[in-house]
Amino acid sequence: MLALTAVAARSAEWGEDMHLNGKRVFTAVMAAFALNASNLSAQWWNPADPTPPKDRGTRFAAKVAYTHQTALDAGAIASAALWNDDFAKLDRMYEELLDVRATDGTSMIAPIAKIFEQAGSSPVFDKTIERWAQRSPASRLRPLAMAIRWEGDAWRARGMRYASSTPDEAMQIFRQRLGRATDALAAAEQEGRNSPIWYWTALSVGGATGRPAAQLDALFEEAVAKFPVYQPIYYVRANYLLPKWGGSWEAVDDFVNASVARTREREGDAFYAWLYVAIARAVDGDVFHETHATWPRMKKGFEDMLARHPDPFNKNLFAHFACSVHDRETTARLLTELGKNSRLGNWSDGVTTESCQRFALTGA
Hints:
With about 375 residues, this protein is mainly alpha-helical. Helix content is about 60%, strand content about 0%.
């Protein structure tokens, strides 16, 4: 869903090419779990779950820590379930994780939703969907998956070029596939409005089809009234305020500030950091030079984020940006706290764990 909604999820963190070969991917996932079992949380869908099988899914199971890594694991396992026709598992994961937030503050279903953006590029996807419909006719996820699939297919046909520089044939396919996505959203609407995924997809399709800003704002308001801390909804609305899609940095900053005000009681200023991290992925150059973002406010946002969601992923994210603006004191403190768990360098070029350690800890 364009640059912002693709933040992190289209990266290699949970393997966006899993759809290419389900059996191969399932084997790879199992091997990864065997090597990294200590990082996983107990849960019935987790093949490395240390809980005795008889206790899985019961009150006797170990308490689950839904970390950032657990969310990535869920996306990988859901992808493997899709391509191995384990639709019952996929549907159950979605239903049980629908209202669960990970310790980094993100939704556990967001990585599951992302697997369908690339799914349409697989020649076997339509047959897979047919089998899913036959075996799980009451699935609430499958209709959403179809809408996400067509939205992803539309952008694959067009690419990320401006309309003026896109061949007419590609634009025709783009519009046709967006039409399929619109139809899929309409078919899923009655039940779909109970899921943030429906709104996330509807906002993306609405923006891509050129719906008036007032309509997008009304849909956004409805979405966040129901799902006030589901970040992808904010990311996709912000995306269509970017200058490259006809907006402005003033409009982006106004939206960020309004989003912070909306969520402050629950999240402090965390949404300032979450949104500008996403926006940083969509700009060429330094986000603090290209946009109206400021480091003092971003720093406050990260501090509030960590106070509420002290996942190592968030601390690494904070350290990365602190290093990028040469805030030596903050970088040194965060790197010291992270120790061997320091993993900087995943959010922009020119910043690595080693370079930040030299800058902040050795003075080199």
